[in-house]
## 1
Amino acid sequence: MKIYIDGEFLDKEHAKISVFDHGLLYGDGIFEGIRFYNGRVFRLDEHIDRLFHSARAIALDIGMDKAAVAEATLETIRQNKLRDGYIRLVVTRGIGDLGLNPYLCPKATVFIIASAITLYPAEKYEKGLEIVTCATRRIAHGALSPMVKSLNYLNNVLAKIEALQAGAGEGLMLNEQGLVSECTGDNIFIVKNGAIHTPPIASGALAGVTRAIVFEMAAEFGIPIHEPMMTRYDIYTADECFLTGTAAEVIPAVKLDTRPIGDGRPGPVTARLMGRFHELTATTGTPIYP
Ligand code: PXG
């Protein structure tokens, strides 16, 4: 396996980051998780745009332009001769001293891993996930913008521990007001009375690339889609529920806190969105091998 670090491709054994890197010392950095299917990178530009927005928000100079980051991403896949897989693209503040001061880090560290990804078992796509509400709250806008896909994932990790300990596939995270935000690594949607609803970005949801595709698909199908503030009640009483993310794609959720959602089985709107999403991943994207 060849890993991109700061312009070089290194073997896995030699792909190492300094213990003085502020990405490690302070979680001072950002990342993207990107999928590629059938020789094409899915929604590459959207991921690169979000990366640059994350960088801007934390005053981080990536030291490369968007075209160079996109090309490095494609070249990492080529070096590994892959056609299907997952990209982890990480930019850290870089190497500094043992103090918070980011201005003492002269240059950002950029690394890119192209690899396989652990997916939910196929059975979960057919039968649906059971999810539980986590006590750990989504990061507040006043602490660190939840829009920034930063290396500070500890509260999501703690929520994921809660979900896994409860035997659930994913955990629902609320914001400080107790409103539904999203899951630990996925956005959440419900279907009710023929319309799709998902919490607004203001509630602490990440502006997911897959989330945006649900809006496109809803428009295509003529299904109304709204972003109201939502509580758990809305999910308990929904007809259908599904989660979205680069890793999860579109996956049905059939129980929240042991209560069946709708009839407790994946619903028809979810199935239709899953089908269209698979068509998009199979037929669109930036070619890796022109
Ligand atoms: N919310 C959070 C907190 C995320 O981390 C999403 C929503 C969905 O966003 P996208 O843009 O992917 O539709 C994410 C993304 C993993 C993994 O290994 C998690 C994500 C992406 C890729 C892999 O669990 N989460």
## 2
Amino acid sequence: MPERVLLVGFMASGKSSTGKELASRLGWDFQDFDTVIAARAGKSVSRIFAEDGEGEFRRLESEVAEELLARSDTVVASGGGWPAQPGAWKMVTEDTLSVWLKVSPAVAVRRASGQGSTRPLLHGGDVTERATALLLDREASYRRARYTLDSEQYGPLELAGEIMKLMKDMKLMKEWTN
Ligand code: S3P
């Protein structure tokens, strides 16, 4: 069995809702990068971007990632930009099951606006155009996850179920090879 599950993917790909559902089914802890960053900084992610800049946000994010990715029995939802940061994947150890929740830019933008999103990178101008460029830039880093699941066709409940199946398969594989 993996020690932890890491969910990666673009903004509004369902990382938090799937992560919460999965953690509750496993009886594990759920941790979300952005929530921990905001609590530690004492202000929202939007305010960190606006007042301290993206560089400071990425510094905090890397610090939080290192801590959360060392925890056991934890489902971790990363921020959408983290996997593309230099050195990010070096923090992901063999005992981590990483999953990319894949979504198209158009659906991500639609979902984010429906969520009354306060995401600083999805504000102002042609948001779909920006999301498309960002996703193109990040796709290779998301692809480094061990598994990819379609987060457009499936909702959080189904995605959590699929990840449970992947975990069972990993356990069986391990027993079989031991
Ligand atoms: C970001 C995604 C956000 C948050 C920040 C930057 C990004 O997280 O970390 O606004 O660079 O894509 P979510 O993916 O949870 O929205």
